[in-house]
Amino acid sequence: MNYSLSKTDIKKEKEKSVLLTAWRRLVPLMAEEKWAVALAMIATLVSAAVTLIVPIIIARIIDVYIAGHNFSGVLSYSGLLTLIFIVGVISSYLQIRLMGGVGRRLLFNLRDKIFNKLQALPVAFFNQNKAGDLISRINNDTDKLNQFFAQALMQFISNLILIVGTGVFLVVISLKLGIVALIPAVFALVLTQLLSPWVKRTSLASLQTLGGMSSEIQESINNFKVIVAFNRLDYFRTKFKEANEKNYVASVAAGVASNIFNPIYLLASSLAQMAVLAYGIYLIALGNFTIGLLIGFLLYVNNFYTPLRQLASVWPSLQLALAGLDRIAEVLSFESDLKIAPKKCSRTMLPNLVMEFQNVSFHYVAGQDVLKNINFTLERGKTYALVGPTGGGKTTTASLMARLYDPSQGSIFLEGKDIRCLEPAERVKKIGFILQEPFLFNGTVRDNILYGNEEFQAYSNAELMTVLKKSHLAKLLTRFSAGLDTIVTSSGDSVSLGQKQLIAFIRATLRQPDILILDEATANIDTITEQLLEDIIKQLPATTTKVIIAHRLNTIENADEIFFVNAGSVVNAGSMQHAVDLLLNGDRQS
Predict the structure, then answer these.
(1) Quick one: three-class SS letters along 12-24?
(2) Are residues 101 and 36 in contact, defined by beta-carbon separation less than 8 angstroms?
(3) 474, 465 in Cβ contact below 8 A?
(4) Which residue from 34, 138, 163, 481 has the highest number of Cβ atoms inside 10 Å of its Cβ?
(5) pLDDT, tens digit, for every residue of 154-204?
(6) Residue 37: which CATH number?
(7) Shared domain check, 478 and 394
(8) Between β-strands 409-414 and 417-418, what pairing exists: parallel, antiparallel or unpaired?
(9) How, if at all, do strands 515-519 and 545-549 pair?
(10) Strand, helix or coil for residue 122
(11) CA separation (Å) from 339 to 4, 118, 333, 424?
(12) What is the pLDDT of residues 340-356, one digit of tens each?
């Protein structure tokens, strides 16, 4: 399955309205916050009502009370205006407080949702996508949504309400003067509609280049030892410079796009006020208008274009939020192809067989098979060796055994049951896999050897040591300065590569799985420790089947059967000498 995340600019929306698109995508995110959003909406409506009612009151004060020299009326209405302003301030505060909480909770839930989705996706997804870009989607893209919800959403809605409400007041007060005031806005809105797709594309490009730069930073930090060892600082400097320049260019373009609407609406506002003032004075001269109404009308014009200018500032934030949402939605849209298959699970197998590959083919890239129609069985309690040239498919075969991937064709049966029918917990309990490059987590040796092992989680260190002694694993802890309490970091810098493999070995064998897969598990271990590991393996339950991948022949000389893996096939190599001959020939061919 193709799990590659898109790196191209987003296609133009098929929906007729960008606002309709935004509404359809953002509403589901607010489902759990409907009451907070509803209260914030009420506060927004109150704040908008305050803004709409003030100009008409001021017009009345000028035309009735100031013109009539009724100063007591002026004072009374001034007190009323003060109360109205206080109500507006309180409602604005409540709206900001409520939506700030909504934004933070949305950020928390969305990041949690993305991380859980990543946990559910198969290994193939992470093989096809860079970790830095995924981190950028979790951190940066979700933060853009948080900023929009916390700061811009209610401002966006409030501005829409004010624009519509003020437009109605302008037309009701004077149809002709209202049309004069609104004409510049029509041209500004047409320009907005034409420029919006470009703004969104530049915003998405900025987010994508930021993700690319994060990937370069992560790669150079993770591989810093290799960079220094091979003196390739210049190479990564060049790669980072290229990524940084791409981000710089994209960010500048996004900044220009984000601010392009403000001068357009400022010009429209200035033109509207000049036209209204000129035409209003003309109407006053004709006796068809009053000074108070003209002042109130100009306030309404200002109240119409100020939200438009603010909307122009908020609009790029909406476009950026939608661009981020597109990138987040792309991750959330993926479904794992390693699902539990409840049908056609079982088949009859001989009692002594533990695993069977039946007509299995596999490819990472369509049309390029790594394994082709392979068939073999593993018997309970036996030791099997997989040998072959580098790149021949040994690790791929072992990964299929552990269901890190599913076959492209065919079936794999574990104890007579299709491996695709097993729940993950059941499969992990039955199959232990020591990876070629073992991964450690931040914590202690104890934390790492008990990772995913619920059986011994509640044990004290003393109780756990008793279990380790029974499993003949306690001797391995002498290689660690503080035993179970030795501090381990995910980078593995606190322990040697050989110690990492020891931790992985303890972690896998402590479970006493039905099948134990060792992928070059002793490659970085000294001869004495390797012999100790072999002794521990021999003392595993007699029913445990061992599958060993190794290049060193002494590691596999005691195997019951040897399989030669190369060029898409897995064949029984027979004797040790035959395996050596096949390996030598395979290396020459490769």
Answers:
(1) CCCCCCHHHHHHH
(2) yes
(3) yes
(4) 163
(5) 777 888 888 888 888 888 888 888 898 889 988 888 887 787 778 777 877
(6) 1.20.1560.10
(7) yes
(8) antiparallel
(9) parallel
(10) coil
(11) 19, 15, 15, 10
(12) 777 667 777 778 899 99
Q: Residues with Cβ < 8 Å from 557, sequence gap 6 or more?
A: 576
CA distance 177 to 479: 88
Asked, for residue 11, whether it belongs to a domain, the answer is: no
Residue 541 CA to residue 283 CA, distance in Å, equals 102
Which tens digits make up the pLDDT trace of 9-35?
A: 444 444 445 556 666 666 777 777 788
Residue 405 shares a structural domain with residue 464:
yes
Tally of domains within the chain: 2
DSSP 346: B
Q: Give the residue from 111, 107, 92 showing the smallest Cα distance to 150.
A: 107
| DSSP SS3 for 438 | coil
d(CA 167, CA 57): 17
Rounded Cα distance, 403 and 338, in Å: 8
Q: How far apart are CA 208 and CA 249, in angstroms?
A: 12
Higher pLDDT, 460 or 7: 460
Is residue 41 included in any domain, yes or no?
yes
For the entire predicted model, the pTM comes to: 0.64
Question: Residue 471 corresponds to which amino acid?
Answer: S
Query: Residue for token digits 């309400």?
Result: 161
C-beta neighbour count of 31 within 10 angstroms: 8
Per the domain annotation, does 7 fall within a domain?
no
Q: In 3-state terms, the chain is what percent helix, strand and coil (to 5)?
A: 65, 10, 25
What is the domain extent for residue 152?
18-333
Q: Are 158 and 47 in contact (CB under 8 A)?
A: yes
Q: Is residue 389 part of a domain?
A: yes
**Contact (Cβ atoms closer than 8 angstroms) between residue 440 and residue 480:** no
Amino acid in position 370: V
CA distance 159 to 165: 10
Give the pLDDT confidence of 377-404 residue by residue, as tens digits.
999 999 998 888 878 888 899 989 989 8
Q: What is the pLDDT of residue 15?
A: 40
The CA distance from 214 to 244, in Å, is 10
Instruction: Quote the tokens at residue 116.
Output: 């859980």
- To which residue do tokens 């599958």 refer? 547
Question: Taking a C-beta distance cutoff of 8 angstroms, is the pair 145, 106 a contact?
Answer: yes
- CB neighbours of 509 closer than 8 A, spacing ≥ 6? 432, 471, 473, 516, 536, 537, 540
Amino acid at 573: A
Q: How far apart are CA 328 and CA 51, in angstroms?
A: 37
pLDDT band at 436 (very low <50, low <70, confident <90, very high): confident
Q: Which structure tokens are listed for 500?
A: 């990492």
Q: Rounded to an integer, what distance in angstroms lies between the CA atom of residue 421 and that of residue 346?
A: 9
Q: Are 407 and 400 contacting, i.e. CB atoms less than 8 angstroms apart?
A: yes
Strand partners, 188: none
Q: Report whether 440 contacts 383 (CB < 8 A).
A: no
List 413's β-bridge partners, or say none.
Answer: 356, 418
State the pairing for strand pair 431-434/515-519: parallel
Structure token pair of residue 55:
């100009």
Token pair, residue 438, equals 């073992």
Indicate the length of the chain as a whole number. 590
